[in-house]
Amino acid sequence: MTKIATREAYGKALVELGRQNSQVVVLDADLSKSTMTRYFAQEFPERFFNMGIAEQSLMATAAGLGLSGKIPFASTFAVFATGRAYDQVRNGIAYPKVNVKIAATHAGLTVGEDGASHQAVEDVTLMRAIPNMTVIVPADGEETRQAVFAAAAYQGPVYIRLGRPAVPVIYNEDYRFQIGRAHTLRRGKDAAIIACGVMVHEALRAAEELAAAGLEVMVVNMSTIKPLDREAVLAAAATGAVVTAEEHTVIGGLGSAVAEVLATERPVPLAMVGIRDTFGESGKPDELMAKYGLTARDIVAAVKRLKGKKD
Amino acid sequence: MATARRIRRDIVRMVGAAGSGHPGGSLSAVEIMTALYFKVMRLDPERPDWPERDRFVLSKGHAAPVLYAALAERGFFAVDKLDTLRRLGSPLQGHPDRKSLPGVEVSTGSLGHGLAVANGMALAGRLDGRDYHVYVLLGDGELEEGMVWEGAMAAAHYHLDNLTAIVDHNHLQIDGRVEEVMSPEPVADKFRAFGWEVMTIDGHDFGQILDALERAREVKGKPTVIIAETIKGKGVSFMENQAGWHGKAPKPEEVEKALAELA
Of the candidates A137, A168, A199, which is a domain's last residue? Predict the structure, then answer.
């Protein structure tokens, strides 16, 4: 199976974008070899600013560049982008609606061995709560590439959540990503799985397994967490049972966003697959995904539990 | 001088009318702001987005009244609008909001951000080959924010000679004397150690301010900081050097008394 890390796709997309748009500038905080902004730095050294190990300065400088007509992509690990520089993102970027793109890599448990201090499990919640912020969680390399271009074309703050390890390819160039538009990967009438990021692939695997057991399950890639595609959520609800899946805490992330729509517009049984109000720990990504309940098997179990309740 | 006095009167009047706000640190920066907006900065009130304009960042955002008064007196909007300060629906937000009010370059209010934002503007100016200058006004209490020093490091690292920082060194913050709450001293030595050109002046002396701002534009290869020694509450006898007037509005009779002194 072909795999590519979303951070890798991000780094390559930036170069492509930089060739097309001279207003694009990139900032990093001493992690350019990990966030993959080094590709951009190599080709456009004059448009790349390494701010050193100083994430607050990174975000505020990006704001200054954005206020001056540039399209800045500010990159660092998700845990620092959203935690260490929260005030700069909130007050300096989102409140004045500055045209800054925050590309946060190494999100979630799949950072792996670095452990809890480096595993952002609550970044989507934080970013989603800030007014004016758009939040995108691409599922694979191609979607990441298109999300980078869509973010550059969009006027305003965008948070793009990216991962460290290589993840399976889901899309090819025929796919058309749009901010705020979910993509239905598989149709089904018995239940729906709404997933984002690395969990989209797990959702597809779960749907295969459920099909073998006689359940036709819809799979929706909700790559924009905010603004949420309400129509897609309601379409999923029409199956009568919804399972959300995210590599993120279930408090305030994709599951909560979907629950907000369901509870107010179309209450149906809902189960959330995600991290249960806990920090992670060191380990291999796949070991962590298994230990914290983030596998296709967990999604299958959730769907079956819901169906049991419903029937 | 007459302009500075008008701006002082505007500050007292608008904060009094609002019933809340920050008069002390606004009054300390009046001469600095007057020099920038009436003598030094290249700007056009008719075209607040003019690409060639000089940029000003009020990093100590609570001093919004002095910025609003300077913008109004300079013709960005009608002076009588100042009386809407902090009212529901007013573009004159409690802290500057660039989306609400033309002339406000950066939304500020959370201390410590301004210098790094100014760095971004200075970098953009260089990339675009524009010769505009970026000015940022910092409070001395604000220097306690670590982020200021991230910005100081970056400005020197990138040799931002199109950027000038001014420290309104009035020695008071909410809880008392800056040196007692959390001393940032020696401020001049710190900036010098970070690679900046440093000047220290009397921040109420127009001659010194203008001279320093002119010299700052001639410094090449590094950013300049002007440490302006000022008096918090300057010009209103009962507010001068009183930490209590950091964020307190004068009552109507106090407004009258202050305006009489500023007549």
Answer: A168
What's the average model confidence in pLDDT over B58-74? Answer: 98
pLDDT on residue A307 = 87
Residue A174: inside a domain, yes or no? no
> Does residue A240 sit in helix, strand or coil?
coil
The residue whose two tokens read 């907006």 is: B37
User: A178 lies in a domain?
Assistant: no
Q: How many CB pairs below 8 Å do chains A and B form together?
A: 106
Q: Would you tell me how many other CB atoms lie within 10 Å of the CB of residue B89?
A: 6
d(CA A240, CA A250): 21
Set of chain B residues whose Cβ sits within 8 Å of the Cβ of A52: 150, 153-154, 157
**For A94, nearest residue in chain B (alpha carbons):** B107
Q: Which residues contact B50 (CB under 8 A, 6 or more apart)?
A: B43, B44
Domain of A262 in residue numbering reads as 183-307
Identify whether residues A140 and A272 lie together within a single domain.
no
Name the residue with higher pLDDT: A307 or B184.
B184
- Beta-sheet pairing, A191-195 with A242-249: parallel
- Collapsing DSSP to helix, strand or coil, B16 comes out as helix
- ipTM of this predicted structure: 0.96
Of A55, A143, A202, A247, which is the active-site residue? Answer: A55
Residue A177 lies in a domain: no
> How far away is chain B from the Cα of A88, in angstroms, using its nearest Cα?
7
Give the end of a domain, one of A168, A198, A221. A168
Question: Domain count of chain A?
Answer: 2
pLDDT at A184: 98
**Window A:33-52, CB contacts with B under 8 Å:** 46-47, 49, 51-52
pLDDT of amino acid A311: 52
CB contact under 8 A, A57 and B154: yes
User: What pLDDT score was predicted for residue A310?
Assistant: 54
Q: Residue A308 has what pLDDT?
A: 81
B27 pLDDT more than 60: yes
Is the overall model pTM greater than 0.95, yes or no?
Answer: yes
Q: From B125, which residue of chain A is nearest by alpha-carbon distance?
A: A68
Are A27 and A49 spatial neighbours (Cβ–Cβ below 8 Å)? yes
Interface test with A, best of B52, B110, B117, B135 (most A CBs within 10 A): B117
A209 flagged as catalytic: no
